[in-house]
Design brief:
The protein is α/β, with parallel strands linked by helices. The protein is about 30% helix and about 20% strand. A 7-stranded mixed sheet has the order 6-5-4-3-2-1-21. It is globular, with a radius of gyration of 23 Å. The chain binds zinc ion.
Length: about 475
């Protein structure tokens, strides 16, 4: 049997995808999108040799776009086989894929306008909304910790990864010609301090391990420090009667912010004020959380029993429509508005920034990574003059950067997850990390467990 590394390799952190092939089955683990400013479009296109209809199944670790983003592309090219994932991952992936298809179509219109100007023939979108529609019908929900046969000779088991709602690591038991091998894919692993989510649950035996290495070179600052900082900023903003604008992605950070605010209100640390979730996608994602309370960690369950959630009805306002969103322009502070896009390069957050950046009592709270060239990055860099919708604005608002809400485990936690596997002396491959972090993590595994981890390149084939 062999495993081909088809993404998140060679120092890349996006495009996660592995092809497991035996004499009788072909299975993909994740089919992520390659992302980032210097990603060439051709990387996401399917190679002519791919033959999606010859696959037996797709298995998903979690719903982030860099792990599920090319499923509609498989469907476009004839894939109609089962897609195994946890319930919450299926729900979230559907939301994320629909949004992705919508963005593909928008992108296409922009590209084709440019092509027309240059006299070139129009091109087609990577995929369209119609290629997302079959997803739900192909999806097969799996239970955590329950082995399930996914293809001839291949049994799989999902275990909590603590990285995203519904996220999992996957263990494969693969049988071929009387031999049985265990292959473990960590997927993305979360920090054990991540609120709402249960901490990761490691596996304890494997022949081969693929381990993520996003933060393989460092540990995060203690999570409580970030929460304390967040509380300080919110208190300061409320004192100045200002608006707090939080650019966020729909899943994860948004719910994390709502959670911490909810606790602050419940504990009467601060007088409750209106909180607006101004993103149809984030509202949908939040409903998925509500639908799967079994995935909450003990702390979240305990807060719920003390009234978190119930008590939020009075101050928490989802604003689904554009008209509702526009009305937020005229309301006074203090209030907090969560809106996309997370990097301030599109979406409703732009309207809120346009109306409020020039006011000194506005607070912009940056809680996620801001790519080079985005408005979010310019704000983080402290630029005093920015332009939004072709209008120049002077930035008088206070911009705060809070880096501690990371969804990825740090170096010590990656080693902690790996520790129970070390005794079985597996072959280890470090993926989903830039070369600095994955080299650093390889050194830790060598030092602590005497295991020489390998750093696969894109397209590398691992023989088992
Ligand atoms: Zn992820």
């Amino acid at each position: 049997m062999e495993i081909k590394v088809l993404g998140a390799a060679g120092g890349e952190v996006t495009g996660s995808c592995y092809l497991v092939s035996t004499g009788q089955a072909r299975v993909l683990i994740d089919v992520g999108m390659f992302q980032g400013s210097n990603t060439s479009e051709s990387k996401n296109r399917l190679s002519p040799s791919a033959k999606p209809s010859s696959l037996d199944a797709v298995l998903l670790t979690h719903a982030h776009l860099d792990h599920v983003g090319r499923i509609p592309l498989l469907i476009k090219h004839g894939f109609r086989q089962p897609i195994f994932a946890t319930d919450a991952t299926i729900d979230l992936a559907e939301i994320i894929l629909r949004d992705s298809a919508r963005l593909q179509v928008q992108d296409l219109e922009r590209q084709n306008r440019k092509r027309r100007e240059r006299g070139q023939a129009p091109t087609d979108a990577l995929y369209q909304p119609e290629h997302v529609e079959p997803f739900r019908g192909l999806a097969r929900p799996v239970e955590f910790n329950q082995p399930i046969t996914v293809a001839p000779g291949i049994t799989a088991r999902w275990r909590e990864a603590g990285h995203m709602f519904g996220s999992a690591s996957i263990e494969l038991q693969v049988e071929e010609a009387g031999r049985r091998k265990v292959i473990v894919f960590s997927g993305d692993l979360g920090p054990t301090s991540m609120p709402i989510l249960r901490p990761f649950e490691p596996f304890d035996k494997a022949d081969v391990v693929f381990l993520e290495s996003t933060y393989g070179d460092r540990d995060h600052r203690p999570y409580e420090d970030t929460v304390r900082e967040f509380t300080r900023i919110v208190t300061e903003a409320v004192a100045s009667q200002g608006k707090i604008l939080v650019p966020t992605f729909a899943v994860g950070r948004s719910q994390q912010i709502l959670y911490h605010l909810g606790i602050m209100f419940l504990q009467k640390q601060i007088q409750p004020f209106p909180v607006y979730l101004d993103s149809p996608m984030a509202i949908e994602a939040t409903k998925v959380y509500v639908k799967h309370p079994d995935l909450f960690d003990d702390e979240m369950k305990s807060w719920q029993s003390r009234g978190l959630g119930r008590s939020s009805k009075g101050y928490f306002h989802p604003t689904a429509t554009a008209a509702e969103s526009m009305r937020l322009n005229d309301i006074p502070g203090p209030c907090l508005i969560l809106a996309g896009a997370g990097m301030c390069n599109a979406g409703r957050i732009l309207h809120h920034l346009r109306h409020n950046l020039s006011k000194p009592n506005t607070h912009v709270l940056i809680v996620g990574y801001q790519g080079t060239g985005t408005l979010g990055r310019r704000l983080v860099d402290g630029q005093k003059l920015v332009s939004i919708h072709q209008r120049r604005l002077s930035v008088k608002a206070k911009v705060h950067t809070l880096n501690g809400f990371s969804g990825h485990a740090g170096q010590s936690e990656l080693a902690q997850w790996f520790e129970p596997l070390a005794a079985s002396k597996p072959q280890v491959y470090l993926t989903h990390g830039e070369d600095g972090p994955r080299t650093a993590l390889a050194q830790v595994l060598q030092k602590r467990f005497k295991i020489a981890a390998r750093l696969p390149r894109h397209g590398e084939i691992v023989q088992v």
